[in-house]
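Q&A log
Question type: sequence-to-structure
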Amino acid sequence: MRQLICATALACWLVSPARSIAGGLPDKTPTAVVEDAGPGGPPAQPSAPSEGAPAAQPPGAEASPAASLPSPTHAVKRKASLARRRKVGAAKKIPTEPIDVRLEITRNSWAFEGPSARSKRIKRIHAGKYVHVTALTPYYLRVELRDGRTAYVDPEAVKMVWPADKILTLSDDAPVRERPNKWAKELAEVNKGHHVQVVGVAPGYVQIRMRSGLEGFIPYSALEGGAASVPQTDLLLN
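Response status: OK
Response body:
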C-alpha cells in the first residue's frame, strides 16, 4: 500500500510540468501593430517600405547634396560668364597709349587675341594691307579689325617710321627712347630750348639724331608746336 501511494505521487509530480508547458506558457512572439481602418472597415494591413524607394524626409530636413547640385547647362553658362569677366579684366590691365592711325602691313603676320605671340590667333594679315591702329602697348599694337574685333599685331610687321629731315626746337625736357612708345628703354635725354634733328616720323613720336650719332624717339608733345610742327608724311595724311 505504501509503495502504491509513493508511485502515484511520483506520477503526479512528473505529469504536472508537461501539462503546464503544453497549455499554460504565454506566447512570446511579437505581434504587429496595425492601424484601425475606422468603423465598418476591415483592419488595415501593416505596410513596409518598397524595396529601393527612398525614405520619406521628415519636415524641416535638409535636401540631399545631389538635389542641390546645379544643372549642366547652368554650370556651362557660369563658366562662360567667368571666362568673359576674366578676359575683360585682363584687357583693362594692359597699359596703352591711345593713337588713331592706319598703318601698312609690311610682311605676312597674325592678329592675336592678346598682346603676345602665345595668345590665340584671330586672323591672318597680309603684306600690303592696312590696319587701323587704336593704341600702342609695351610690345604690340592694338588694332581694330574690319569686323569690329579688337586684336594685337607685332609692330615688326607694320611700317612704323617714315623718313624726314627737319630741325625742330624742344619745348620741354624729354627722354630719348629706343622705340616709339613710352615703355621703351631710355637711351638719353634732351633739354628744353635745344634744337634737334628730326630724321623720322612715327605714330605720336619723332625720330631724332643727336650730335653723338645716337638715334631715338621723343614724343610730339616735347616739340614747340606739338604735332603741328611735325613734317607731313603719308602717316599723318591717313
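Response note: The radius of gyration is 48 Å.
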